[in-house]
Design a protein that fits this description.
With 265 residues, the protein is an alpha/beta fold. The chain is 29% helix and 25% strand. The longest helix is centred in the first third of the chain and has 17 residues, at 36-52. The N and C termini lie far apart (55 Å).
Length: 265
């Protein structure tokens, strides 16, 4: 069994700042982390590896520093990493990103399960995983809360606001993970030493545009059918009101009236 897990390096949301002139994220000096939902996807893949001896390939698209999330994945137990990195890919929207990642997965080949996180915290679109499945022309199950592999088939529990659905699917298949799926493990000391040393660097392959079969008109900023018009941090206005009155009962009545005027109760 070969499993590919897609990971994204994202800015730590506690540190996000917006350039007020350009409306874009300021990434310089902002710490980056592995996207949380992707970490749940990685843990699910690692459990398949633990149980069935699967080969696990961690895949990420981004600038050279995105190798960090691949090394973290290998420290947790992934066998190798693949970084998709080329200036030609810059500015790609979800469509273009999925086009590129699908081409990379096809280059790797012979995969049984592709794991992705439900969505990335810097975009919140939840589109890339399903789009990858469409470009690969394979089945997909999103919002996966539980998954089991038995008799060459996967039993997948999909969570929705209306209830849970159980699907039986054959491989190859793409699954997107939610945080309720599991609790990600910590890297081991041995894994850290190997992943962040020379051996770890040797286990990471880099795909550029020349390595992939992609239509150049469908990738990058020019090939993206959508674009971000403006990004901004919501303005938070705080107003304090002191409730006066004769005794706690009078104050409580005044508070109820004010909350009712604001249509909060």
């Amino acid at each position: 069994m070969r499993i590919i897990v897609c990971l994204k390096q994202v800015p730590d949301t506690n540190e996000v700042r917006i350039n007020q002139e350009t409306g874009t994220l300021i990434r310089d000096g902002v710490p980056s982390i592995m996207n949380p939902d992707d970490k749940n996807a990685l843990e699910a893949a690692l459990r398949f590896k633990d149980e069935f001896g699967a080969e696990l390939i961690a895949l990420s698209m981004g600038p050279p520093q995105a190798k960090d999330v691949l090394k973290e994945a290998m420290a947790m137990g992934a066998d190798e990493g693949v970084l998709i990195s080329d200036r030609a890919f810059g500015g790609s929207d979800t469509w273009a990103t999925a086009t590129i990642i699908a081409a990379a997965i096809e280059k790797i080949g012979n995969y049984d399960v592709v794991f992705c996180g439900r969505q990335a915290i810097d975009g919140d679109t939840a589109q890339v995983g399903p789009e990858i499945a469409e470009f690969l022309n394979i089945p997909q199950v999103t919002y996966v809360k539980n998954v089991k592999y038995e008799d060459d088939k996967l039993e997948v529990v999909r969570y929705t606001e209306y209830g849970e659905y159980v699907f039986e699917v054959a491989s190859p298949v793409l699954l997107t993970a939610i945080k309720e799926l599991n609790v990600p493990r910590y890297p081991t000391i041995k894994g850290i030493n190997e992943a962040y040393g020379d051996k770890g660097e040797e286990k990471i392959r880099v795909f550029c545009i020349g390595d992939l079969v992609v239509d150049s008109t469908q990738i990058g900023l020019k090939g993206s059918p959508t674009n971000v018009y403006r990004s901004f941090v919501p303005v938070k206005n705080k107003v304090s009101v002191i409730i006066d009155g004769n005794g706690s009962k009078d104050k409580a009545n005044t508070l109820i009236m004010k909350l009712s005027e604001l249509n909060l109760i």
